[in-house]
Amino acid sequence: MKRLVILGAGTAGTMMANHLHSHLPQGEWEIDIVDEQTEHYYQPGYLFLPFDIYEPEDIVKPIHEFIPRGVNLLNEQIDRIVPAENYISMVGGDRLRYDLLIIATGAKIAPEETPGMLGEEWKRSIFDFYTFEGALALRNKLREWEGGKLVVHITEMPIKCPVAPLEFAFLADSYFRNKHMRDKVDITFVTPLSGAFTKPKATAALEHLLEDKNIHIESDFAIEQVDTENMSIVDYGGRIVPFDLLVTVPTNKGDAVIERSGLGDDLNFVPTHKATLQSKEWPNIFVLGDATNIAASKAGSVAHFEAEILTDNILRFIAGEPLKEEFDGHANCFIETGNGKALLIDFNYTHEPVEGTFPFPGIGPLRLLKESRINHMGKLAFRWIYWNMLLKGTHIPFVSTSMQESGKSF
Question: Is the residue at 395 inside a domain?
């Protein structure tokens, strides 16, 4: 019996377990999925938790509910991967042998990478919303906060869901307006990028929204330190942005097991072929989701498209056939803009977000790069799709793994 091991039971790993359980030859392969956690988190929900739009129970469910029968779920902590000998060393000393390995260990925040960030003000006046604990603590803070200088900050790229910090700024504007205290809150969006987003056309649309909502933007800000004594963030050029409440996205890094295994780059992301999702160094290792170093967005939609393509390539690899170079970096993201509206963007490695319709050319019903209530409804509906379709490996109708050019204005 051959063994396929999946490291990580988050979005990407769970989808792969469901896809491969249905496609691998029965009786020939055993599938193990390893994760030290016992709960699965709907990470897009972290954005809504601070604003009391979602409750904790909306975004947390037991991992085992989504692992198919016949796949072995191992709730154990991994020490390291030993690719030269095709085994995984567990913290307790056991070894897990594999013939094929899929790395889906995700990305985590590393506030300790920025001097002053992880100190006495952490979860007092400095918060993240990229963890369940951080989003929940921030919710409690916002409920009682009386106003002042709110700074929404990105430390460095890449990060999970690059649009989420912008969404937070937009939702904060809406939240404080609904509490009739927007005049007491000064919102500044601080980014290391030269604009609001990584793509020019989307940047223009998003910066227009920032201006309309009276949200100031500080771009090209390379943070050197958080100065908690003076309640400010300081960049390497000496610029200072003061805050009363700092909502930051710390440096994002791959899992520490990647570093211990010697498989990652400087940020612990695994060098991966961008079109096949095969490890650049080890042929029997494949990587997807936030664990890769590919230049695609670290977002759930990307993991979804990758999983469908990777399933086919795993089967081709087992059969000794050439891998298909099919993944084009496709990402499809709703951007909450507040007041019950959202934008939708659709892009890939070579095409930036543009105007048009989705998913049907010329029909929609969703409009790209245009604010609408139906886009907001689509964002909220995605939670049901995530729990009931996406995690279970069910193909989402009319949504292609590759970006479609028809119906878009390039």
Answer: no
Residues 347 and 380 in one domain: yes
Cross-strand partners of 153: 190, 248
Return mean pLDDT, the chain.
Answer: 95
Per the CB < 8 A criterion, the answer to whether 167 and 209 are in contact is no
Helix (H) or strand (E) holding 206: helix 200-212
Q: What is the CATH number of the domain that holds 162?
A: 3.50.50.60
Q: Whole-angstrom Cα distance, residue 293 to residue 287?
A: 9
Last residue of a domain, one of 230, 251, 272: 251
pLDDT digits (tens, 9 = 90+) for 364-377: 899 999 999 999 99
Give the chain's end-to-end CA distance (angstroms, integer).
50
| Length of the chain in terms of residues written | 410
Domain that holds residue 19: 2-106+255-318
Amino acid letter, 395: H
SS3 state of residue 289: helix
d(CA 400, CA 408): 15
Asked if 350 contacts 402 with a C-beta cutoff of 8 angstroms, the reply is no
Task: Look at residue 77 and tell me if it is in a domain.
Answer: yes
274 occurs within a structural domain: yes
Structure tokens that stand for 375 in this block: 């886009």
Asked whether the predicted pLDDT for residue 380 surpasses 90, the reply is: yes
Measured distance CA(206)–CA(339) in Å, rounded: 15
pLDDT-above-70 percentage for the chain: 100
Q: Judge residue 81's burial from the number of C-beta atoms within 10 Å of its C-beta, 0-12 exposed, 13-18 middle, 19 or more buried.
A: buried
**Distances in Å between the alpha carbon of 182 and those of 135, 169, 190, 371?**
21, 12, 19, 21
Q: What is the largest CA-CA distance in the chain?
A: 66
Cross-strand pairs, 217:
189
Residues 246 and 272 in one domain: no
Q: How far is CA 186 from the centre of its chain?
A: 27
**CA angle 355–387–26, rounded 5-degree value:** 110
Are 289 and 243 in the same domain?
no
Looking at the structure of the chain, the number of domains it has is 3
Neighbours of 18 (CB within 10 A): 21
This prediction's pTM: 0.96
223 in a structural domain: yes
Q: 116 and 222 in one domain?
A: yes
Look-up of token digits 């990402």: 331
Does residue 75 share a domain with residue 157? Answer: no
Mean pLDDT of 33-56: 97
Residue 357's Cβ-side half-sphere holds a number of Cα atoms within 13 Å equal to: 9
